[in-house]
Amino acid sequence: MKKKERKQQRLEKKVQQTMKYSDEELGLIKNTFSEDDTILKIVRKVLLQIELTREEKSGMYANFKNNVGLMSVLRKFYIPTLENDVPLGMESDSYTTLQLEDKFPEYAVCLINARARTVEYFEQQFNILEGKGKEVIRFKDFLLKENKTDGMRYSDVLARNDIVLNVKMTGLFLKALAGHQEETVEETRIRLAQNSNK
């Protein structure tokens, strides 16, 4: 076996072991988000409660209403839950990234409350994206100070910032995963594995 073939086999094995997303999920991402940022920008606007134009609303309903597969993939990215079908070592959910070990309990509770608000907010916004929910939690209210204790205000600002950062980073990640339309899912997997080696 040639050196180049062995290297390709190692790379393919690494791709199979390290990807948390199935070929079907990657296909949905590619088909929805490759080449054009329009749909990804609609997701961003809905998640940050930025007003949509008439055309964007049409695009939202056309792409997300009754699209269970795509909505499942988006939830997996933005508000992950523990699943049994992920590769070993890839287990995580919305709470596993919280750094609580060295925090005082009062501060840790604020972090936990902020993450719970973030998850609740994203669930609401995904329901709206699907065309079946109403806006109860308003994004701009995270910064309000009236009728809130200092701890509630602190948790709300943490949640707000967590939402913005999550929307930004996950949007960029989805764009990278989507790649180019002409690229196959397997080529995308290999490209991502090669980029992770740099």
Question: For the residues shown, what is the average pLDDT?
Answer: 85
Output the helix-strand order: HHHHHHHH
Sheet/helix structural class? mainly alpha
Q: Per DSSP, what share of the residues sits in E-state strands of 2 or more residues?
A: under 5%
- Sum up the overall morphology in one term: globular
Q: Largest sheet at a glance?
A: none
Number of strands: 0
Count of discrete structural domains: 1
Radius of gyration: 19 Å
Low-pLDDT sequence parts: none
Helix content range of the residues, please? 55-70%
Distance between the termini: 25 Å
Task: Specify the number of helices.
Answer: 8
Describe the structure.
The chain is mostly helical and 198 residues long. The protein has one domain. The chain is built from eight helices and no strands. α6 (105-129) packs across α7 (150-178). The radius of gyration is 19 Å and the shape is globular.
Short note summarizing the structure:
The chain has 198 residues and is mainly alpha-helical. It has helices at 3-18, 23-33, 38-47, 54-64, 68-78, 105-129, 150-178, 185-196. The protein has one domain.
Question: What is this structure's SSE topology?
Answer:
Blueprint: H1 3-18, H2 23-33, H3 38-47, H4 54-64, H5 68-78, H6 105-129, H7 150-178, H8 185-196
Descriptive keywords:
mainly alpha; 198 residues; globular; 8 helices; 0% strand
